[in-house]
Amino acid sequence: MRGFVAALAVACVSLPAAADTSGNAPDWQQLDPTQRAILAPLGHEWSNLGPERRTKWLELAARYPSMTQDEQARVRARMSYWASLSPEERIEARDRYKRLQSMPSDQRETLRKQWEAYESLSPEERRRLSTPRQPSDKPPGAASAAPVRK
Predict the structure, then answer these.
(1) In whole angstroms, what is the distance from residue 26 CA to residue 66 CA?
(2) Burial classification of residue 79, based on how many CB atoms lie within 10 Å of its CB (0-12 exposed, 13-18 middle, 19 or more buried)
């Protein structure tokens, strides 16, 4: 789930560039109270964001009031999740998002359906699937190595 959510968070970050082409985005203190409230999960790291990223988050904040309550809750959760990622995890998430966007739409749809199927699994089934198989998990009678031909 973490990878999927990260990819979606990247989708929020990868919005079209804002009208401010000067590359200047306001500092945290320059945001109005509504913007600060919406972007609160990013407040502690706002100064570390480049102007382009700040502008994209500000675009999201501008659309936020017109979203449904469910959409707002989802955006806030994703924003909090994004803020919790390390710089390396963010790079990985952006790369995953780019790969996802370069896939043909039928493959993306198949992946989406697979994800929905995974989401419907019980927590125990998810843990079982996420645990790497150990060599002892081989079916009975399975060879331990490829046969040697003489």
Answers:
(1) 22
(2) buried
